[in-house]
Amino acid sequence: MRSTIILGVFAILPLAFSQITTSPKRGLVYVPNANYPQDNNIWDSPSSDLTWYYNYGPEPSPNFSNATNFQFVPMLFSAPNDTTDASFLTSVQSQISAGANVSYVLTFNEPDGTSATGGSDVPSELAAETWIREVEPLKLQGVKLGAPAVTGAQTGFTWLQQFFTACAGNCSADFIPIHWYGDFGGLASHIGQVRAAYPNMSIWITEYADPGANLTDSQSFFNESSQYFDRIEYVSCLSDATAGCETLTGSDSYITRYSYFGSFRSSVSNVGPDAAMLTQNGQLTDIGSWYLGGSATGFVPSAASHTAAFAGSSLLVVLAAFWCFS
Question: What is the pLDDT of residues 62-77, one digit of tens each?
Answer without folding.
Answer: 999 888 789 999 999 9
